[in-house]
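name: query_chain
kind: protein
chains: 1
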Amino acid sequence: MQAPPVEIERRFRILDPSVLPPLGAPSRMLQCYLPHWKIEIRDSSLCFEELILVSGLSADEIQGVEDLFEAKFTPRIRLVGDCAFVTVKGPLKNGARIEWEWEVPTHRVEGLVSSFRFPHVLKHRHRIPIDDELTWEVDIFEGENHGLVMAEIELPSFDHPYPRPDWLGPEVTLDNRFGNGALAREPWIDLRDEI
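structure:
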């Protein structure tokens, strides 16, 4: 079996968005988080209720996702422009998590996401390339998370060196309140008075 794909990222709040560099055009993202207990694998397909989210899974993908069923996993659907992605993420451990992701036909999942039946976040993402390997992603949240601005960077290892621009605020990588799934369930509008 191939090693499962791993996402390693560090996440920061941006306390003063006015000091950000020019950002350019963003990508609009709408993400919803499905109840994990309704996710199952049937006939090589990842399914939610009666809907096939991803079909034609490989044996490695089936085994990898089934392994996550034993952990606290997070199923997510993301709409970005005309594209749609289904993701299954494992729990965060030492700044890393297993992340299986598939691009799927938008029409297959668009109604599920835009129904707003499930916890969701809406944000605009700006990319700031650093070099050929690293890119800052700046997320400006909307809706119930309006006012929250975050930056994240994906790294090859948790201790990999990266530049720390002056506009970065405090690191919140290990603060579970600032994960997108957590913000979908307990939004910034409820959280900001505590911080």
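note: Residues 59-68 form the longest helix (10 residues).
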